[in-house]
UniProtKB/TrEMBL annotation:
<dbReference type="Pfam" id="PF14432">
    <property type="entry name" value="DYW_deaminase"/>
</dbReference>
<dbReference type="Pfam" id="PF01535">
    <property type="entry name" value="PPR"/>
</dbReference>
<dbReference type="InterPro" id="IPR046960">
    <property type="entry name" value="PPR_At4g14850-like_plant"/>
</dbReference>
<feature type="repeat" description="PPR">
    <location>
        <begin position="267"/>
        <end position="301"/>
    </location>
</feature>
<dbReference type="InterPro" id="IPR032867">
    <property type="entry name" value="DYW_dom"/>
</dbReference>
<dbReference type="InterPro" id="IPR046848">
    <property type="entry name" value="E_motif"/>
</dbReference>
<dbReference type="Pfam" id="PF20431">
    <property type="entry name" value="E_motif"/>
</dbReference>
<feature type="repeat" description="PPR">
    <location>
        <begin position="135"/>
        <end position="165"/>
    </location>
</feature>
<dbReference type="GO" id="GO:0003723">
    <property type="term" value="F:RNA binding"/>
</dbReference>
<keyword id="KW-0677">Repeat</keyword>
<feature type="repeat" description="PPR">
    <location>
        <begin position="166"/>
        <end position="200"/>
    </location>
</feature>
<protein>
    <recommendedName>
        <fullName>DYW domain-containing protein</fullName>
    </recommendedName>
</protein>
<dbReference type="InterPro" id="IPR002885">
    <property type="entry name" value="PPR_rpt"/>
</dbReference>
<dbReference type="Pfam" id="PF13041">
    <property type="entry name" value="PPR_2"/>
</dbReference>
<dbReference type="GO" id="GO:0009451">
    <property type="term" value="P:RNA modification"/>
</dbReference>
<comment type="similarity">
    <text>Belongs to the PPR family. PCMP-H subfamily.</text>
</comment>
<feature type="repeat" description="PPR">
    <location>
        <begin position="236"/>
        <end position="266"/>
    </location>
</feature>
Length: 573
DNA sequence: GCTCTGTCTA
Protein backbone atom coordinates (compact mmCIF):
# COMPACT_ATOMS: atom_id res chain seq x y z
CA UNK A 1 0.00 0.00 0.00
CA UNK A 2 2.69 2.44 1.00
CA UNK A 3 4.51 1.98 -2.27
CA UNK A 4 1.33 2.88 -4.18
CA UNK A 5 0.99 6.05 -2.16
CA UNK A 6 4.54 7.04 -2.93
CA UNK A 7 4.01 6.32 -6.63
CA UNK A 8 0.98 8.59 -6.64
CA UNK A 9 2.91 11.32 -4.91
CA UNK A 10 5.58 11.19 -7.59
CA UNK A 11 3.04 11.79 -10.38
CA UNK A 12 3.64 15.09 -12.11
CA UNK A 13 2.02 14.65 -15.49
CA UNK A 14 -1.08 13.20 -17.03
CA UNK A 15 0.95 10.42 -18.65
CA UNK A 16 2.21 9.36 -15.20
CA UNK A 17 -1.40 9.16 -14.11
CA UNK A 18 -2.32 7.05 -17.12
CA UNK A 19 0.61 4.71 -16.51
CA UNK A 20 -0.44 4.29 -12.91
CA UNK A 21 -4.01 3.64 -13.97
CA UNK A 22 -2.86 0.85 -16.30
CA UNK A 23 -0.77 -0.53 -13.46
CA UNK A 24 -3.75 -0.44 -11.12
CA UNK A 25 -6.01 -2.17 -13.62
CA UNK A 26 -3.54 -4.92 -14.47
CA UNK A 27 -2.92 -5.61 -10.80
CA UNK A 28 -6.65 -5.38 -10.02
CA UNK A 29 -6.11 -2.54 -7.60
CA UNK A 30 -8.42 0.05 -9.15
CA UNK A 31 -11.01 -1.18 -6.72
CA UNK A 32 -8.92 -0.26 -3.72
CA UNK A 33 -10.57 2.80 -2.40
CA UNK A 34 -7.85 5.05 -0.93
CA UNK A 35 -5.46 4.79 -3.87
CA UNK A 36 -8.05 5.21 -6.56
CA UNK A 37 -9.45 8.28 -4.82
CA UNK A 38 -5.96 9.74 -4.66
CA UNK A 39 -5.52 9.09 -8.35
CA UNK A 40 -8.88 10.65 -9.12
CA UNK A 41 -8.04 13.74 -7.08
CA UNK A 42 -4.76 14.07 -8.87
CA UNK A 43 -6.61 13.97 -12.16
CA UNK A 44 -9.36 16.32 -11.12
CA UNK A 45 -7.57 19.06 -9.19
CA UNK A 46 -3.83 19.01 -9.79
CA UNK A 47 -2.36 21.56 -12.20
CA UNK A 48 -1.36 18.84 -14.68
CA UNK A 49 -4.68 17.05 -14.30
CA UNK A 50 -7.38 16.62 -16.89
CA UNK A 51 -11.04 16.95 -16.03
CA UNK A 52 -12.42 14.87 -18.86
CA UNK A 53 -9.97 12.14 -17.94
CA UNK A 54 -11.07 12.40 -14.31
CA UNK A 55 -14.73 11.89 -15.24
CA UNK A 56 -13.66 9.01 -17.49
CA UNK A 57 -11.84 7.38 -14.57
CA UNK A 58 -14.83 8.00 -12.33
CA UNK A 59 -17.20 6.13 -14.65
CA UNK A 60 -15.04 3.02 -14.30
CA UNK A 61 -15.56 2.96 -10.56
CA UNK A 62 -18.35 0.60 -9.59
CA UNK A 63 -19.32 1.95 -6.20
CA UNK A 64 -17.89 5.42 -5.98
CA UNK A 65 -17.38 6.64 -2.46
CA UNK A 66 -18.24 10.12 -1.19
CA UNK A 67 -14.58 11.02 -1.55
CA UNK A 68 -14.57 9.91 -5.19
CA UNK A 69 -17.55 12.13 -5.89
CA UNK A 70 -15.95 14.98 -3.99
CA UNK A 71 -12.80 14.80 -6.07
CA UNK A 72 -14.79 15.21 -9.27
CA UNK A 73 -17.17 17.89 -7.95
CA UNK A 74 -14.20 19.81 -6.56
CA UNK A 75 -12.34 19.62 -9.86
CA UNK A 76 -15.36 20.66 -11.91
CA UNK A 77 -16.08 23.56 -9.54
CA UNK A 78 -12.60 24.94 -10.17
CA UNK A 79 -12.65 24.22 -13.90
CA UNK A 80 -13.91 26.08 -16.92
CA UNK A 81 -17.53 24.92 -16.55
CA UNK A 82 -18.53 25.24 -12.89
CA UNK A 83 -22.15 24.48 -13.82
CA UNK A 84 -21.12 20.86 -14.29
CA UNK A 85 -20.12 20.67 -10.63
CA UNK A 86 -23.64 21.71 -9.68
CA UNK A 87 -25.11 19.09 -12.03
CA UNK A 88 -22.88 16.37 -10.57
CA UNK A 89 -23.84 17.46 -7.08
CA UNK A 90 -27.50 17.04 -8.06
CA UNK A 91 -26.88 13.57 -9.50
CA UNK A 92 -24.97 12.56 -6.39
CA UNK A 93 -27.64 13.70 -3.97
CA UNK A 94 -30.29 11.75 -5.93
CA UNK A 95 -28.22 8.58 -5.62
CA UNK A 96 -27.63 6.60 -2.52
CA UNK A 97 -24.15 7.99 -1.98
CA UNK A 98 -23.84 10.16 1.08
CA UNK A 99 -23.26 13.90 0.49
CA UNK A 100 -20.95 15.38 3.09
CA UNK A 101 -20.04 18.92 4.07
CA UNK A 102 -17.15 18.95 1.61
CA UNK A 103 -19.41 18.06 -1.29
CA UNK A 104 -21.65 20.98 -0.39
CA UNK A 105 -18.64 23.22 -0.04
CA UNK A 106 -17.35 22.38 -3.51
CA UNK A 107 -20.79 22.72 -5.08
CA UNK A 108 -21.23 26.11 -3.39
CA UNK A 109 -17.84 27.18 -4.66
CA UNK A 110 -19.17 26.47 -8.14
CA UNK A 111 -22.28 28.54 -7.37
CA UNK A 112 -20.04 31.41 -6.25
CA UNK A 113 -18.21 31.38 -9.55
CA UNK A 114 -21.49 31.23 -11.50
CA UNK A 115 -23.20 33.80 -9.24
CA UNK A 116 -25.92 31.14 -9.12
CA UNK A 117 -28.05 32.34 -6.24
CA UNK A 118 -31.05 30.05 -6.69
CA UNK A 119 -28.88 26.93 -6.94
CA UNK A 120 -27.10 28.08 -3.79
CA UNK A 121 -30.46 28.40 -2.04
CA UNK A 122 -31.27 24.79 -2.90
CA UNK A 123 -27.94 23.59 -1.56
CA UNK A 124 -28.52 25.78 1.49
CA UNK A 125 -31.75 23.96 2.29
CA UNK A 126 -29.96 20.63 1.95
CA UNK A 127 -27.16 21.83 4.21
CA UNK A 128 -29.75 22.57 6.84
CA UNK A 129 -31.49 19.22 6.28
CA UNK A 130 -28.20 17.28 6.54
CA UNK A 131 -27.34 19.12 9.73
CA UNK A 132 -24.18 20.78 8.46
CA UNK A 133 -25.23 24.23 9.69
CA UNK A 134 -22.68 24.15 12.52
CA UNK A 135 -19.79 23.87 10.09
CA UNK A 136 -18.23 27.35 10.13
CA UNK A 137 -16.20 26.81 6.98
CA UNK A 138 -19.18 25.59 5.02
CA UNK A 139 -21.41 28.39 6.26
CA UNK A 140 -18.75 30.92 5.29
CA UNK A 141 -18.73 29.52 1.77
CA UNK A 142 -22.50 29.82 1.71
CA UNK A 143 -22.36 33.38 3.03
CA UNK A 144 -19.85 34.23 0.34
CA UNK A 145 -22.07 32.87 -2.45
CA UNK A 146 -24.99 34.99 -1.29
CA UNK A 147 -22.79 38.06 -1.01
CA UNK A 148 -21.20 37.56 -4.43
CA UNK A 149 -24.52 36.93 -6.12
CA UNK A 150 -25.84 40.21 -4.74
CA UNK A 151 -28.09 38.90 -1.98
CA UNK A 152 -26.50 40.74 0.92
CA UNK A 153 -29.52 40.28 3.15
CA UNK A 154 -29.21 36.51 2.99
CA UNK A 155 -25.46 36.77 3.49
CA UNK A 156 -26.01 38.79 6.66
CA UNK A 157 -28.67 36.37 7.82
CA UNK A 158 -26.30 33.40 7.45
CA UNK A 159 -23.63 35.37 9.31
CA UNK A 160 -26.00 36.31 12.13
CA UNK A 161 -27.20 32.74 12.54
CA UNK A 162 -23.72 31.25 12.75
CA UNK A 163 -22.92 29.96 16.22
CA UNK A 164 -19.23 29.71 15.52
CA UNK A 165 -17.47 32.17 13.25
CA UNK A 166 -13.88 32.45 12.23
CA UNK A 167 -11.94 35.30 10.69
CA UNK A 168 -12.92 34.20 7.17
CA UNK A 169 -16.61 34.57 8.03
CA UNK A 170 -16.05 38.21 8.96
CA UNK A 171 -13.89 38.74 5.91
CA UNK A 172 -16.46 37.27 3.55
CA UNK A 173 -19.19 39.57 4.83
CA UNK A 174 -16.98 42.66 4.94
CA UNK A 175 -15.77 42.06 1.38
CA UNK A 176 -19.33 41.29 0.28
CA UNK A 177 -20.71 44.52 1.73
CA UNK A 178 -17.81 46.49 0.29
CA UNK A 179 -18.28 45.11 -3.20
CA UNK A 180 -22.05 45.11 -3.04
CA UNK A 181 -22.68 48.83 -2.78
CA UNK A 182 -23.05 48.88 1.00
CA UNK A 183 -19.54 50.12 1.82
CA UNK A 184 -20.55 52.09 4.91
CA UNK A 185 -21.75 48.89 6.53
CA UNK A 186 -18.51 47.16 5.60
CA UNK A 187 -16.61 49.79 7.57
CA UNK A 188 -19.03 49.52 10.49
CA UNK A 189 -18.53 45.76 10.55
CA UNK A 190 -14.77 46.19 10.40
CA UNK A 191 -14.88 48.48 13.42
CA UNK A 192 -17.43 46.24 15.12
CA UNK A 193 -15.28 43.13 14.88
CA UNK A 194 -12.40 44.93 16.55
CA UNK A 195 -14.69 45.96 19.40
CA UNK A 196 -15.57 42.29 19.78
CA UNK A 197 -11.91 41.47 20.11
CA UNK A 198 -11.24 40.06 16.67
CA UNK A 199 -7.93 40.81 15.02
CA UNK A 200 -8.36 41.74 11.35
CA UNK A 201 -5.86 40.07 9.03
CA UNK A 202 -4.52 40.94 5.57
CA UNK A 203 -7.73 39.90 3.90
CA UNK A 204 -9.96 41.84 6.28
CA UNK A 205 -8.12 45.08 5.62
CA UNK A 206 -8.38 44.55 1.86
CA UNK A 207 -12.15 44.56 2.19
CA UNK A 208 -12.16 47.53 4.56
CA UNK A 209 -9.83 49.54 2.29
CA UNK A 210 -11.97 48.79 -0.72
CA UNK A 211 -14.98 50.18 1.16
CA UNK A 212 -13.03 53.33 2.08
CA UNK A 213 -11.94 53.77 -1.55
CA UNK A 214 -15.50 53.67 -2.77
CA UNK A 215 -16.71 56.13 -0.19
CA UNK A 216 -13.73 58.43 -0.44
CA UNK A 217 -13.62 57.98 3.33
CA UNK A 218 -10.16 59.37 4.04
CA UNK A 219 -10.43 59.41 7.82
CA UNK A 220 -11.52 55.79 8.02
CA UNK A 221 -8.94 54.84 5.40
CA UNK A 222 -6.19 56.44 7.46
CA UNK A 223 -7.38 54.52 10.52
CA UNK A 224 -7.19 51.27 8.60
CA UNK A 225 -3.73 52.24 7.32
CA UNK A 226 -2.67 52.94 10.90
CA UNK A 227 -3.89 49.51 11.94
CA UNK A 228 -1.97 47.94 9.04
CA UNK A 229 1.26 49.61 10.12
CA UNK A 230 0.69 48.66 13.76
CA UNK A 231 0.15 45.01 12.88
CA UNK A 232 2.93 45.00 10.28
CA UNK A 233 0.47 43.91 7.62
CA UNK A 234 2.32 46.25 5.25
CA UNK A 235 4.73 43.42 4.55
CA UNK A 236 2.00 42.14 2.25
CA UNK A 237 2.18 43.55 -1.26
CA UNK A 238 -1.54 43.21 -1.91
CA UNK A 239 -2.35 45.16 1.23
CA UNK A 240 -0.06 47.98 0.12
CA UNK A 241 -1.65 47.98 -3.32
CA UNK A 242 -5.03 48.45 -1.70
CA UNK A 243 -3.64 51.28 0.47
CA UNK A 244 -2.34 53.03 -2.67
CA UNK A 245 -5.73 52.66 -4.30
CA UNK A 246 -7.48 53.96 -1.20
CA UNK A 247 -5.38 57.13 -0.96
CA UNK A 248 -5.73 57.75 -4.68
CA UNK A 249 -9.50 57.35 -4.62
CA UNK A 250 -9.77 59.52 -1.52
CA UNK A 251 -8.11 62.31 -3.50
CA UNK A 252 -4.51 62.05 -2.35
CA UNK A 253 -2.30 60.90 -5.19
CA UNK A 254 0.76 62.17 -3.31
CA UNK A 255 0.02 60.01 -0.26
CA UNK A 256 -0.53 57.08 -2.59
CA UNK A 257 2.83 57.76 -4.20
CA UNK A 258 4.57 57.88 -0.81
CA UNK A 259 3.27 54.40 -0.04
CA UNK A 260 4.34 53.26 -3.50
CA UNK A 261 7.87 54.61 -3.05
CA UNK A 262 8.30 53.04 0.39
CA UNK A 263 7.47 49.53 -0.76
CA UNK A 264 10.48 47.25 -0.95
CA UNK A 265 8.76 44.74 -3.23
CA UNK A 266 6.22 45.67 -5.88
CA UNK A 267 4.02 43.49 -8.04
CA UNK A 268 2.71 44.41 -11.45
CA UNK A 269 -0.56 45.33 -9.75
CA UNK A 270 1.36 47.86 -7.63
CA UNK A 271 2.58 49.61 -10.77
CA UNK A 272 -0.82 49.39 -12.45
CA UNK A 273 -2.60 50.78 -9.41
CA UNK A 274 -0.23 53.72 -9.21
CA UNK A 275 -0.49 54.44 -12.96
CA UNK A 276 -4.27 54.36 -12.65
CA UNK A 277 -4.02 56.64 -9.60
CA UNK A 278 -2.21 59.32 -11.60
CA UNK A 279 -4.65 58.82 -14.46
CA UNK A 280 -7.57 59.36 -12.11
CA UNK A 281 -6.09 62.67 -11.06
CA UNK A 282 -5.36 63.83 -14.58
CA UNK A 283 -1.59 63.62 -14.03
CA UNK A 284 -0.96 62.23 -17.50
CA UNK A 285 2.77 62.81 -17.58
CA UNK A 286 3.39 61.23 -14.18
CA UNK A 287 1.42 58.18 -15.27
CA UNK A 288 3.38 57.88 -18.50
CA UNK A 289 6.66 58.37 -16.65
CA UNK A 290 5.78 55.53 -14.31
CA UNK A 291 4.75 53.39 -17.26
CA UNK A 292 8.23 53.95 -18.74
CA UNK A 293 9.90 53.24 -15.40
CA UNK A 294 8.31 49.87 -14.90
CA UNK A 295 10.22 48.34 -17.78
CA UNK A 296 13.45 49.57 -16.21
CA UNK A 297 12.45 47.89 -12.96
CA UNK A 298 12.13 44.59 -14.83
CA UNK A 299 8.34 44.55 -14.84
CA UNK A 300 6.77 44.16 -18.27
CA UNK A 301 3.61 46.22 -18.74
CA UNK A 302 0.57 44.01 -19.20
CA UNK A 303 -2.84 44.76 -20.71
CA UNK A 304 -3.98 46.55 -17.55
CA UNK A 305 -0.84 48.74 -17.51
CA UNK A 306 -1.60 49.82 -21.05
CA UNK A 307 -5.19 50.52 -20.16
CA UNK A 308 -4.09 52.66 -17.23
CA UNK A 309 -1.63 54.60 -19.36
CA UNK A 310 -4.23 55.08 -22.11
CA UNK A 311 -6.71 56.25 -19.54
CA UNK A 312 -4.12 58.75 -18.28
CA UNK A 313 -3.74 60.08 -21.82
CA UNK A 314 -7.51 60.46 -22.06
CA UNK A 315 -7.82 62.45 -18.88
CA UNK A 316 -4.86 64.65 -19.70
CA UNK A 317 -5.81 65.16 -23.34
CA UNK A 318 -2.56 63.58 -24.56
CA UNK A 319 -4.07 62.39 -27.82
CA UNK A 320 -0.91 61.64 -29.79
CA UNK A 321 0.80 59.89 -26.86
CA UNK A 322 -2.27 57.74 -26.40
CA UNK A 323 -2.53 56.74 -30.04
CA UNK A 324 1.20 55.93 -30.09
CA UNK A 325 0.80 53.82 -26.94
CA UNK A 326 -2.13 51.96 -28.44
CA UNK A 327 -0.18 51.27 -31.63
CA UNK A 328 2.81 50.04 -29.65
CA UNK A 329 0.85 47.32 -27.88
CA UNK A 330 1.26 44.74 -30.63
CA UNK A 331 5.04 45.26 -30.57
CA UNK A 332 5.02 44.23 -26.89
CA UNK A 333 3.20 41.03 -27.73
CA UNK A 334 -0.13 42.28 -26.38
CA UNK A 335 -3.43 42.19 -28.25
CA UNK A 336 -5.66 45.17 -27.50
CA UNK A 337 -8.98 44.10 -25.99
CA UNK A 338 -12.32 45.88 -26.23
CA UNK A 339 -11.38 48.19 -23.36
CA UNK A 340 -8.22 49.37 -25.11
CA UNK A 341 -10.27 50.05 -28.22
CA UNK A 342 -12.81 51.87 -26.08
CA UNK A 343 -10.09 53.98 -24.58
CA UNK A 344 -8.58 55.02 -27.89
CA UNK A 345 -12.03 55.77 -29.29
CA UNK A 346 -12.62 57.95 -26.25
CA UNK A 347 -9.28 59.65 -26.81
CA UNK A 348 -10.02 60.47 -30.46
CA UNK A 349 -13.62 61.32 -29.73
CA UNK A 350 -12.74 63.85 -27.07
CA UNK A 351 -10.34 65.50 -29.47
CA UNK A 352 -13.16 65.83 -31.98
CA UNK A 353 -11.57 63.28 -34.33
CA UNK A 354 -14.88 61.46 -34.67
CA UNK A 355 -14.23 60.11 -38.13
CA UNK A 356 -11.03 58.37 -37.03
CA UNK A 357 -12.80 57.10 -33.92
CA UNK A 358 -15.58 55.67 -36.03
CA UNK A 359 -13.10 54.07 -38.45
CA UNK A 360 -11.46 52.28 -35.52
CA UNK A 361 -14.82 51.04 -34.29
CA UNK A 362 -15.69 49.73 -37.77
CA UNK A 363 -12.39 47.96 -38.22
CA UNK A 364 -11.85 46.44 -34.79
CA UNK A 365 -11.61 42.64 -34.72
CA UNK A 366 -14.16 42.13 -31.93
CA UNK A 367 -17.76 43.27 -31.49
CA UNK A 368 -17.91 46.75 -29.92
CA UNK A 369 -19.62 46.67 -26.54
CA UNK A 370 -22.23 49.06 -25.16
CA UNK A 371 -19.70 51.18 -23.32
CA UNK A 372 -17.85 51.77 -26.58
CA UNK A 373 -20.96 53.03 -28.37
CA UNK A 374 -21.78 55.17 -25.34
CA UNK A 375 -18.30 56.67 -25.59
CA UNK A 376 -18.86 57.52 -29.23
CA UNK A 377 -22.31 58.89 -28.43
CA UNK A 378 -20.82 61.10 -25.73
CA UNK A 379 -18.21 62.46 -28.14
CA UNK A 380 -20.94 63.06 -30.75
CA UNK A 381 -22.85 65.06 -28.17
CA UNK A 382 -19.80 67.12 -27.25
CA UNK A 383 -19.16 67.99 -30.89
CA UNK A 384 -22.81 68.18 -31.95
CA UNK A 385 -22.44 65.45 -34.57
CA UNK A 386 -26.01 64.34 -35.27
CA UNK A 387 -25.19 61.58 -37.78
CA UNK A 388 -22.66 59.88 -35.51
CA UNK A 389 -24.98 60.22 -32.53
CA UNK A 390 -27.75 58.53 -34.47
CA UNK A 391 -25.49 55.65 -35.53
CA UNK A 392 -24.32 55.09 -31.97
CA UNK A 393 -27.84 55.33 -30.55
CA UNK A 394 -29.20 52.89 -33.08
CA UNK A 395 -26.47 50.40 -32.15
CA UNK A 396 -27.25 50.86 -28.46
CA UNK A 397 -30.93 50.24 -29.03
CA UNK A 398 -30.12 47.17 -31.13
CA UNK A 399 -27.96 45.86 -28.31
CA UNK A 400 -30.92 46.22 -25.97
CA UNK A 401 -29.42 49.06 -23.96
CA UNK A 402 -32.10 50.82 -22.04
CA UNK A 403 -30.16 53.29 -20.04
CA UNK A 404 -31.49 56.76 -19.45
CA UNK A 405 -28.16 58.43 -20.16
CA UNK A 406 -28.08 57.20 -23.77
CA UNK A 407 -31.46 58.73 -24.52
CA UNK A 408 -30.58 61.95 -22.75
CA UNK A 409 -27.40 62.32 -24.81
CA UNK A 410 -29.20 61.76 -28.09
CA UNK A 411 -31.93 64.15 -27.07
CA UNK A 412 -29.30 66.73 -26.16
CA UNK A 413 -27.70 66.43 -29.58
CA UNK A 414 -31.08 67.14 -31.19
CA UNK A 415 -31.81 69.93 -28.75
CA UNK A 416 -28.49 71.60 -29.59
CA UNK A 417 -29.64 71.67 -33.22
CA UNK A 418 -33.13 72.81 -32.18
CA UNK A 419 -34.64 69.68 -33.70
CA UNK A 420 -37.53 69.68 -31.24
CA UNK A 421 -39.56 67.05 -33.11
CA UNK A 422 -36.68 64.61 -32.73
CA UNK A 423 -36.32 65.58 -29.09
CA UNK A 424 -40.00 64.72 -28.59
CA UNK A 425 -39.55 61.44 -30.43
CA UNK A 426 -36.73 60.44 -28.06
CA UNK A 427 -38.77 61.44 -25.04
CA UNK A 428 -41.69 59.34 -26.22
CA UNK A 429 -39.37 56.40 -26.81
CA UNK A 430 -38.10 56.80 -23.26
CA UNK A 431 -41.62 56.72 -21.87
CA UNK A 432 -42.57 53.71 -23.97
CA UNK A 433 -39.49 51.74 -23.09
CA UNK A 434 -39.49 52.29 -19.35
CA UNK A 435 -35.80 53.23 -19.36
CA UNK A 436 -33.45 52.31 -16.59
CA UNK A 437 -32.25 55.20 -14.54
CA UNK A 438 -29.40 54.53 -12.17
CA UNK A 439 -30.04 56.79 -9.20
CA UNK A 440 -27.27 59.33 -8.74
CA UNK A 441 -25.87 59.94 -5.29
CA UNK A 442 -22.98 61.80 -3.71
CA UNK A 443 -20.93 61.35 -0.58
CA UNK A 444 -19.14 63.95 1.48
CA UNK A 445 -17.02 63.33 4.56
CA UNK A 446 -17.26 65.94 7.30
CA UNK A 447 -15.37 65.39 10.56
CA UNK A 448 -14.88 61.73 9.71
CA UNK A 449 -18.60 61.15 9.10
CA UNK A 450 -19.87 60.23 5.64
CA UNK A 451 -23.04 62.00 4.49
CA UNK A 452 -24.93 60.65 1.51
CA UNK A 453 -27.23 62.66 -0.74
CA UNK A 454 -29.53 61.63 -3.59
CA UNK A 455 -31.13 64.00 -6.08
CA UNK A 456 -33.71 66.23 -4.42
CA UNK A 457 -32.82 64.69 -1.05
CA UNK A 458 -34.74 66.06 1.93
CA UNK A 459 -33.82 63.36 4.38
CA UNK A 460 -30.68 64.96 5.78
CA UNK A 461 -31.09 66.37 9.29
CA UNK A 462 -29.84 69.71 8.00
CA UNK A 463 -31.76 69.81 4.72
CA UNK A 464 -33.50 73.15 5.26
CA UNK A 465 -30.22 74.91 5.79
CA UNK A 466 -28.73 73.13 2.77
CA UNK A 467 -31.60 74.22 0.55
CA UNK A 468 -31.31 77.76 1.87
CA UNK A 469 -27.61 77.69 0.94
CA UNK A 470 -28.54 76.44 -2.54
CA UNK A 471 -30.94 79.37 -2.96
CA UNK A 472 -28.11 81.67 -2.05
CA UNK A 473 -25.84 79.88 -4.54
CA UNK A 474 -28.51 80.21 -7.22
CA UNK A 475 -28.76 83.93 -6.54
CA UNK A 476 -25.03 84.56 -6.45
CA UNK A 477 -24.19 82.45 -9.51
CA UNK A 478 -26.90 84.23 -11.51
CA UNK A 479 -25.49 87.56 -10.43
CA UNK A 480 -22.15 86.25 -11.69
CA UNK A 481 -23.68 85.67 -15.10
CA UNK A 482 -24.57 81.98 -14.97
CA UNK A 483 -27.50 80.77 -17.05
CA UNK A 484 -28.86 77.29 -16.39
CA UNK A 485 -28.37 74.92 -19.30
CA UNK A 486 -31.72 73.28 -18.90
CA UNK A 487 -31.04 71.10 -21.87
CA UNK A 488 -29.55 68.66 -19.37
CA UNK A 489 -33.10 68.12 -18.11
CA UNK A 490 -35.54 66.06 -20.07
CA UNK A 491 -38.86 66.26 -18.33
CA UNK A 492 -41.78 68.13 -19.82
CA UNK A 493 -41.84 70.83 -17.22
CA UNK A 494 -41.54 74.59 -17.19
CA UNK A 495 -38.29 76.52 -17.26
CA UNK A 496 -38.26 77.35 -13.56
CA UNK A 497 -38.96 73.76 -12.56
CA UNK A 498 -36.22 72.59 -14.89
CA UNK A 499 -33.81 74.91 -13.14
CA UNK A 500 -34.91 73.55 -9.83
CA UNK A 501 -34.48 69.96 -10.97
CA UNK A 502 -30.86 70.80 -11.76
CA UNK A 503 -30.46 72.83 -8.66
CA UNK A 504 -30.99 69.90 -6.31
CA UNK A 505 -28.65 67.37 -7.92
CA UNK A 506 -26.91 65.25 -5.32
CA UNK A 507 -23.47 66.75 -6.02
CA UNK A 508 -24.81 70.29 -5.49
CA UNK A 509 -26.48 69.24 -2.23
CA UNK A 510 -23.21 67.73 -1.03
CA UNK A 511 -21.21 70.82 -2.00
CA UNK A 512 -23.74 73.10 -0.28
CA UNK A 513 -23.54 70.98 2.85
CA UNK A 514 -19.75 71.19 2.66
CA UNK A 515 -19.92 74.97 2.45
CA UNK A 516 -22.09 75.34 5.52
CA UNK A 517 -20.42 72.71 7.69
CA UNK A 518 -16.71 73.33 7.18
CA UNK A 519 -14.55 76.32 8.01
CA UNK A 520 -13.98 78.94 5.33
CA UNK A 521 -11.08 78.08 3.08
CA UNK A 522 -11.22 74.34 3.81
CA UNK A 523 -11.21 72.26 0.64
CA UNK A 524 -14.44 70.36 -0.01
CA UNK A 525 -14.40 66.86 -1.44
CA UNK A 526 -17.39 65.07 -2.93
CA UNK A 527 -17.68 61.57 -4.40
CA UNK A 528 -20.33 60.89 -7.03
CA UNK A 529 -21.31 57.44 -8.27
CA UNK A 530 -22.07 58.59 -11.84
CA UNK A 531 -20.43 61.09 -14.15
CA UNK A 532 -20.78 64.66 -12.93
CA UNK A 533 -23.61 66.47 -14.68
CA UNK A 534 -22.69 69.25 -17.11
CA UNK A 535 -24.66 71.90 -15.29
CA UNK A 536 -23.14 70.94 -11.96
CA UNK A 537 -19.71 71.20 -13.54
CA UNK A 538 -20.44 74.78 -14.62
CA UNK A 539 -21.98 75.77 -11.28
CA UNK A 540 -19.24 74.25 -9.14
CA UNK A 541 -16.60 76.09 -11.13
CA UNK A 542 -18.37 79.35 -10.28
CA UNK A 543 -18.81 78.34 -6.65
CA UNK A 544 -15.07 77.70 -6.36
CA UNK A 545 -14.55 81.28 -7.53
CA UNK A 546 -17.19 83.22 -5.64
CA UNK A 547 -16.83 81.30 -2.38
CA UNK A 548 -13.04 81.04 -2.77
CA UNK A 549 -13.00 77.30 -2.07
CA UNK A 550 -11.15 74.43 -3.58
CA UNK A 551 -13.78 71.84 -4.46
CA UNK A 552 -12.83 68.34 -5.52
CA UNK A 553 -15.39 66.04 -7.11
CA UNK A 554 -14.55 62.43 -7.86
CA UNK A 555 -17.00 61.14 -10.41
CA UNK A 556 -17.21 57.72 -11.97
CA UNK A 557 -14.32 58.43 -14.28
CA UNK A 558 -11.89 60.82 -12.57
CA UNK A 559 -11.20 63.66 -10.18
CA UNK A 560 -12.31 67.21 -10.97
CA UNK A 561 -10.40 69.80 -8.99
CA UNK A 562 -12.20 73.15 -9.08
CA UNK A 563 -10.23 76.25 -8.13
CA UNK A 564 -10.61 79.92 -9.04
CA UNK A 565 -13.47 79.15 -11.42
CA UNK A 566 -11.56 76.50 -13.38
CA UNK A 567 -11.51 72.71 -13.35
CA UNK A 568 -8.45 70.47 -13.59
CA UNK A 569 -10.17 68.46 -16.34
CA UNK A 570 -10.05 71.57 -18.53
CA UNK A 571 -13.72 70.93 -19.31
CA UNK A 572 -12.61 67.92 -21.21
CA UNK A 573 -14.30 64.88 -19.74
C1' DG B 1 -6.10 14.97 5.31
C1' DC B 2 -8.77 17.69 2.04
C1' DT B 3 -13.10 23.38 2.34
C1' DC B 4 -14.00 29.39 3.75
C1' DT B 5 -12.28 35.14 3.08
C1' DG B 6 -8.59 38.83 -1.24
C1' DT B 7 -5.61 44.45 -4.30
C1' DC B 8 -5.51 47.16 -10.16
C1' DT B 9 -9.78 47.60 -15.60
C1' DA B 10 -12.34 53.11 -20.52
Amino acid sequence: MAYLESLIQKCNSLSHIKQLQVHFITTGQLLLSPSRTKLLELCAVSPFGDLSYATHLFRHIQNPSTNDWNAVVRGLAAGPEPTRAILWYGTMSRQSCRVDALTCSFALKACARMLARSEAMQIHSQVVRFGFYADALLMTTLLDVYAKSGDLDSAEKVFDEMDVRDIASWNALIAGLAQGSRPSEAIELFNGMRVEGWKPNEITVLGALSACSQLGALKEGEKVHGYIMGEKLDMNVQVCNAVIDMYAKCGFANKAYTVFKNMCRRSIVTWNTMIMAFALHGDGYKALELFEQMGGAGVHPDAVSYLGALCACNHAGLVDDGVRLFDSMAGSGLTPNVKHYGSVVDLLGRAGRLKEAYDIVSSMPMTPDEVLWQTLLGASKTYGNVEMAEIASRKLVEMGSNSCGDFVLLSNVYAAHERWKDVDRVRTAMKDRDVKKIPGFSYIEVDGVIHKFVNGDQSHFNWREIYAKLDEIKFRTKAYGYVAETNFVLHDIGQEEKENALCYHSEKLAVAFGLISTAEGTPIQVIKNLRICGDCHVVIKIISKIYNREIVVRDRARFHRFTEGLCSCKDYW
